[in-house]
Each structure stands twice: as structure tokens, then as C-alpha cells.
Recover the amino acids of this structure.
């Protein structure tokens, strides 16, 4: 995907396609769902567990430039959706993974909307989550322009969930195949060690180090992780290297699988257990809103890993899902499901002169339906319905 870089298609790159301007609906058609995993009765009920903060995202798109102080700007488009950790939760669920989310939800209309959208619309297990009386939902306003975005957020830390201290509270983290963790310097999350000790495969990303020290040893929970997926800038700073590929190789000395995302250059991965490396170019698209693209990439990679795909196929699939997501509003509701993947694959195969790039996605033939599907796919536009309590 191009993301904020806005790079045009080049040799070995697949050209993207306009998917329209509608937001995805909360529930994809049942006949478009696909379960990529092999399941047995002994497997956990939950495929992926994650925890974090859910925001109510309000996204303005179609701005000609960044807002100018002292002026009023009009956007050509607007959408609303659950954001924050909800981006990854929805992306996982839409790929057929049984997803469990632990988060705080306010008792305001924003909290009602996010809870209903994630639980009823996406089928996400919210039993580890809790509602907080009198606490208002965190809100982010995102403005997208020229492939970039500017965000303004507001919120307060949620009080601890008293319900989790009660007898009979849901097991948290639950028994699950995998968990996704957000690492931060100097912060240890007890649940990560617990999940890893129960056999869960831990996938981790990381944010910007506000301390400026960029000490890999400060990411204490990295020792429990099977895979670490930073972006190129983060990876190079943590490893003191000047090349994303060199950074990935250095990280592979610390974690079994290192994946570095490189924006318009795609992604590069090193499996230290097997010595295998993989590099997949990006799909060049016109980005409407890059919100949540990194979360969708991680979700795609987790899905491919749990399904047992080769490393190169996992990278290609993760990049594809991220590229499809940036062509829609929002983070969570723009995440593609198997219907979108199938429609894209059938469409892209009909375009001439893409043989060099198509080889990266040939594995999709054995996964997605082959029946023709309309392109672009259209989805209902969700709105927040304010109601009296």
C-alpha cells in the first residue's frame, strides 16, 4: 500500500482499484465468510485475544489541505466508527478468527454504539470487557488529506474493572491460540506472560518511544513474543541500524520472527528459527484514509500464521488487507473480509501486464471463491443513532 507516501505503481507492484466511498456495514453477508483455520475439539474457543482502548473515531476526508488556523474547512466526506484497539479486533473477526476483546466502554451513546457495533455487528466476544458508569468514551477526530492524516483525541483513563475482581468473572486472558500485545518501553503487562505460559502465540507491535531512548531491553515483554512487527522507523531506531532489512535481521536475534513494514516498499521478514527471509512489495493504491492500516496488516499476518501459510504468503496477505482498508473510511469498519479479498482477486486477475506481481498472490486461488463478484463492493454507511436512555 502507499499509505501516506503516495507512491505510484512500479515494476512488480499491483495496481490498486477504487472501491467506492462507502463505509463497510457492521455485518458481512454470511455466505461471504471463510474460516482459514483447521479446528479440532481440543482447540481453544478463542483464536485471538487482545486488550486496549476503544475510541469513537470521527473521520473527515476529502480535505484539500491541512486545516489552517483561523479558517473554517469543509470536508467532502465524513464517517464514524469504533477506533483504537477496535481496528485490529474488527480486522481479525472479519478474517474469520474468533476474537475476544478486553476494553472499557463508557455508558454514553458513543459507548453504546461501539459495543453494539463490535459485539452484534462483528461477532467479537466482549465478555472480558466492561461498562463504566459515568465515564465518557474516548474520542478521536481524524482529518485525512493528501494521503496524510491529522488526529485530535480526548479521553481519560478508565477506572479498573471491579467486576474482574468478583467471583465468577470471566478468565482474562482466556485460553486462546494467539494474543496481540502493544509493547511500550518500561511497561510490563502481566497478562502477556500469563497468556504465553498457557501456550498462546504472542504477536506484538510497538508505538513511538516518547522517551527518545529507543532501548530494546526496555521492551520487557518482548521475551514472551513469537513475532514482533514494528514499522521501519521504529525498527531502525531500536536496532541502531540504517536499513529496514538490517533492522529485521537484528531483531530476529531477539525474537523468533521479525517483521518490518516499509510503507510503499512493502514488508520484510526474518524467521530466526528456520533462517527463512521473505520480502513482498506493496500494492500501490490511492489512499482515502490510512487510519488503522497497521492494525489491519497485523491482523492479516496473524490470520496467515495461525492458518500455517508460508512466510511470503503471510506477508503478501497482510499487505493486501492493509491496502484494501485504506480505500475506505475509518479503521475498524474499513477492514476487509473474505468477500473483499475474493472480489479484488477476481478483478486483478483480469488486468493485463501484472504477471510479475500476481505471483505473490497465487495462493489465494485455493482460498477464495472463484465465482465472479461485482467491483467495487458496496457497503452500508453506518451512522450513530442518538436515542434517549
Amino acid at each position: 500500500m502507499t499509505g501516506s507516501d503516495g507512491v505510484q505503481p512500479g515494476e512488480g507492484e499491483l495496481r490498486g482499484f477504487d472501491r467506492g466511498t462507502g463505509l463497510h456495514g457492521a455485518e458481512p453477508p454470511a455466505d461471504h465468510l471463510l474460516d482459514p483455520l483447521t479446528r479440532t475439539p481440543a482447540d481453544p474457543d478463542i483464536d485471538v485475544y487482545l486488550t486496549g482502548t476503544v475510541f469513537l473515531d470521527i473521520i473527515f476526508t476529502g480535505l484539500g489541505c491541512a486545516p489552517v488556523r483561523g479558517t473554517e474547512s469543509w470536508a467532502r466526506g465524513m464517517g464514524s466508527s469504533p477506533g483504537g484497539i477496535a481496528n485490529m479486533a474488527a480486522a481479525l473477526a472479519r478474517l474469520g478468527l474468533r476474537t475476544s476483546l478486553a476494553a472499557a466502554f463508557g455508558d454514553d451513546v458513543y459507548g453504546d454504539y461501539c459495543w453494539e457495533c463490535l459485539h452484534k455487528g462483528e461477532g467479537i466476544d466482549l465478555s472480558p470487557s466492561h461498562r463504566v458508569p459515568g465515564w465518557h468514551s474516548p474520542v478521536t477526530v481524524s482529518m485525512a488529506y493528501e494521503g496524510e492524516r491529522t488526529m485530535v483525541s480526548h479521553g481519560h483513563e478508565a477506572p479498573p474493572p471491579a467486576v474482574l475482581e468478583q467471583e465468577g468473572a470471566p478468565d482474562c486472558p482466556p485460553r486462546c491460540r494467539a494474543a496481540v500485545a502493544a509493547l511500550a518501553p518500561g511497561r510490563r503487562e502481566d497478562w502477556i506472560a500469563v497468556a504465553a505460559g498457557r501456550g498462546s502465540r504472542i504477536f506484538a507491535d510497538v508505538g513511538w518511544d516518547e522517551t527518545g531512548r529507543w532501548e530494546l531491553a526496555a521492551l520487557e515483554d518482548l521475551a514472551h513474543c513469537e513475532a514482533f512487527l514494528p514499522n521501519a522507523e521504529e525498527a531502525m531506531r531500536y536496532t541502531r541500524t540504517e536499513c529496514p532489512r538490517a533492522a529485521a535481521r537484528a531483531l530476529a536475534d531477539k525474537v523468533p520472527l521479525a517483521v518490518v513494514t516499509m510503507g510503499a516498499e512493502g514488508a520484510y521478514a526474518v524467521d530466526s528459527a528456520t533462517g527463512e527471509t521473505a520480502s513482498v512489495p506493496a500494492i500501490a493504491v490511492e489512499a482515502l484514509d490510512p487510519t488503522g492500516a497497521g492494525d489491519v496488516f497485523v491482523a492479516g499476518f496473524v490470520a496467515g500464521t495461525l492458518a500455517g501459510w508460508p512466510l511470503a504468503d503471510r506477508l503478501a496477505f497482510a499487505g493486501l488487507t492493509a491496502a484494501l482498508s485504506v480505500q475506505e473510511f475509518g479503521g475498524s469498519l474499513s477492514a476487509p473480509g473474505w468477500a473483499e479479498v475474493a472480489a479484488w482477486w477476481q478483478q486483478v486477475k483480469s488486468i493485463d501486464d501484472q504477471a510479475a506481481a500476481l505471483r505473490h498472490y497465487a495462493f489465494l486461488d485455493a482460498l477464495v471463491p472463484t465465482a465472479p463478484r461485482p467491483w467495487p463492493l458496496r457497503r452500508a454507511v453506518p451512522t450513530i443513532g442518538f436515542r434517549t436512555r
Q: What stands out?
A: The longest strand covers residues 54-61. The two ends are 43 Å apart (CA to CA). Residues 1-32, 163-169, 378-389 have pLDDT under 50 and may be disordered. The longest helix spans residues 311-325.
